[in-house]
Amino acid sequence: MIIITYGTFDLFHVGHVRLLKRLKSCCDELYVGVSTDEFNLSKGKKSFFSYDERSEIVSSCKYVDHVFPENCWEQKVSDIQKYNADIFAIGDDWKGKFDFLNDHCKVMYIERTKDISTTDIKSSLSSINDKKLDEIEGSLHSIIEIVRSISVK
């Protein structure tokens, strides 16, 4: 059985890993379409990592068998046919949006990992201001000095 899924996979995190793990537990081969930088820009999204970097990261995940570029919304039917996919799977935040693919394979909406998303991570990171960064850096320098003084003795 072959499952196909798609995503941007920016700032690869445990939610991505858990999603891919769940999908792989249901199939023999997992195909993952990673959104290209150009496709993301057309959706008004800018990734932190480039397509090549995101593709390499996703390819390195032990649950993923094949990675290919997602260039546009319309390619899903041809990808399902090209890779002979039995199931199209996507996060449940897309529920109902891809039901039309049922004409080509089974459509499965997967529950997302609670309390984690790339959007939330980016928001948290953007709230760190220069003062907070200075405090963090100062704390790290203090810890380094303590470790050095312990290891010298």
What does this structure look like?
With 153 residues, this protein is an alpha/beta fold. The chain folds into two domains: 2-114, HUPs (Rossmann fold); 120-152. The chain contains six helices and five strands, in the order βαβααβαββαα. It has helices spanning 14-24, 37-42, 51-60, 76-82, 118-126, 130-152, and strands at 2-7, 29-35, 66-70, 87-91, 106-110. InterPro entries: Archaeal_FAD_synthase (IPR050385), Cyt_trans-like (IPR004821), G3P_cytidylTrfase (IPR006409), Rossmann-like_a/b/a_fold (IPR014729). GO terms for molecular function: glycerol-3-phosphate cytidylyltransferase activity; metal ion binding. Residues 4-122 form the Cytidyltransferase-like domain. This is Glycerol-3-phosphate cytidylyltransferase.
How would a textbook summarize the main sheet?
Answer: 5 strands, parallel
Quaternary state of the chains: single chain
Q: Report the count of strand segments.
A: 5
Shape: elongated
Return Rg in Å: 20 Å
Order of helices and strands: EHEHHEHEEHH
Which residues sit in consecutive blocks of at least 5 with pLDDT less than 50?
none
Strand order of the largest sheet: 3-2-1-4-5
How are the secondary structure elements laid out?
Blueprint: E1 2-7, H1 14-24, E2 29-35, H2 37-42, H3 51-60, E3 66-70, H4 76-82, E4 87-91, E5 106-110, H5 118-126, H6 130-152
Parallel strand pairs: 1-2, 1-4, 2-3, 4-5
TL;DR?
This protein is an alpha/beta fold and 153 residues long. It contains six helices and five strands.
